[in-house]
Design a protein that fits this description.
- With 263 residues, the protein is of the alpha/beta class.
- Helices cover 33% and strands 33% of the residues.
- A 5-stranded parallel sheet has the order 4-3-5-6-7. The protein has a 5-stranded antiparallel sheet with strand order 12-11-10-14-13.
- The radius of gyration is 20 Å and the shape is elongated.
Amino acid sequence: MRTDGNRGKVALMLHVLAVDDERPALEELTYLLRRDQRIGRVSCAGDASSALRDLSRMLTEGERLDAVYLDIRLPGLDGLDFTRLLTGFAAPPPVVFVTAHDDCAVTAYELGALDYLLKPVRPERLAESVRRVAVAARRTGPAPDEDLRDAEDEMIPVELGGRTRLVSRRSVTHVEAQGDYVRLHTADGGYLVRMPLSALTKRWEAAGFIRIHRSTLVASAHVTELRFDGGRAAVQIGDELLQVSRRHTREVRDRLVRKFHEG
């Protein structure tokens, strides 16, 4: 912990785990991470299996670990499989991929990666990823800062004609479930992402997204009107009127009314 002079608060010093099988790459990543004043400790591992053992030990001993920075192409257990195995932990740390390959961005996002950095890592991109880790760490603490929650954006990789495009979460007006996929609706069109709506709801709840139906999630920032007709509710987003299920009506009403008053 250290004192944040600008805000008069005690700032959380982060503990991260860096994983790469190439020693020069690991040393460079560790060096860059340690230069960031928000990071108090950097642990290292040369492969995913060792990282998994270290992580298991840390969590068993009650040691705080705020994020794992790891490569994807690792010998034996690769970075993607490592991330899948993290779901077996009660409170797994966020994962930031650091890789020379851009063809796994969509899969990484589907697995819940916090960020995706391309090698050679630019200092400003690394700093942005650390900011995201700090926001996530504050959310799990006793008193998360609301302004940090609101400031964080997220870039969602989507596949379009064999190419990967990044879509800003702030541009998403609402989300619809379509089987194993969700469709992200923006002013520019819709984009399919392979992810359950339930997982996306949990991931985006702190950013102001509200479940209004078992198949629909809306961004409260884009809701312009809440309507009631014969006991049924609906929300207006742009030119679209989206129905609210009876099950979700009370929560939607309470959250939107509170947001409108705060605004």
